[in-house]
Amino acid sequence: MTMVGYGDIVPVSSTTRLLISSHAILGLLLIGLFLNVSIKRREKGNPAQH
């Protein structure tokens, strides 16, 4: 999910490397946030299973 390719096209400057790295990290955080909200909503709907 955070893969940017096979290495044939890579960021050269420090600015683009920082941009790509932050993009990958934010993507992972977004997936984690989505899963957290989904699980919380599911738990809220089924309180008897706890």
Explain the overall architecture.
64% of the residues lie in helices and 0% in strands. The protein has 1 helix and no strands. It is rod-shaped and about 55 Å long. With 50 residues, it is an all-alpha fold.
Question: Mind describing the biggest β-sheet?
Answer: none
- Kindly name the structural category: mainly alpha
User: What percentage of the residues does DSSP assign to strands (E)?
Assistant: under 5%
Task: Report helical residue fraction.
Answer: 55-70%
Distance between the terminal alpha carbons, to the nearest Å?
A: 32 Å
Mean pLDDT: 84
The gross shape turns out to be rod-shaped
In terms of per-residue confidence, which ranges show pLDDT below 50 for 5 or more consecutive residues? Answer: none
